[in-house]
Design goal:
Elements (H helix, E strand, L loop, with lengths): L11 H6 L7 E4 L3 E5 L7 E7 L14 H17 L7 E4 L15 E5 L22
Antiparallel strand pairs: 1-2, 2-3, 3-5, 4-5
Bound molecules: adenosine monophosphate and zinc ion.
The site of zinc ion (ZN) has 6 residues, from helix 1.
Amino acid sequence: MAAKKKTNQDCIFCQIVAGKIPASVRFEDEEMLAFDDINPHAPIHVLVIPKKHIESLTHITKQEEALMGRLIYRCRELARELNIADSGYRVTINVGRWGGQIVPHLHLHLLGGAPLTERLGMYSEAKMTIGARE
Ligand code: AMP
Ligand code: ZN
């Protein structure tokens, strides 16, 4: 695999990391950033991202295995801080076109604060007519 660029100038999340686009930051350290989703799907909707540009879960390598664990652990910590740990919450990663990923920079959605729908794997028959790689 070609070496990953650390940042991608065209990437909206890289621009948030660089401070060029404002965000409501919930957590930051040297390798990750957590901020509120601009179009929340639940009362609490935080995105947790690696600072380096990784396109999607498909694009991580063995090298990022531990980083993935720390991103998930951060969701756990944020859930506690935001008082949704006891009521329950969801952590989701959309991957690629059919996975519903719109922003091509790996991110974990932390959703909670209300009972979430159980319809986790709903799919759109209409969208299936569009090629996954289109
Ligand atoms: P996904 O569909 O998994 O790629 O999710 C991308 C998410 O990024 C969506 O929930 C968007 O609302 C969110 N988003 C896009 N632009 C911004 C932004 N500038 N600040 C915060 N969230 C954003
Ligand atoms: Zn990026």
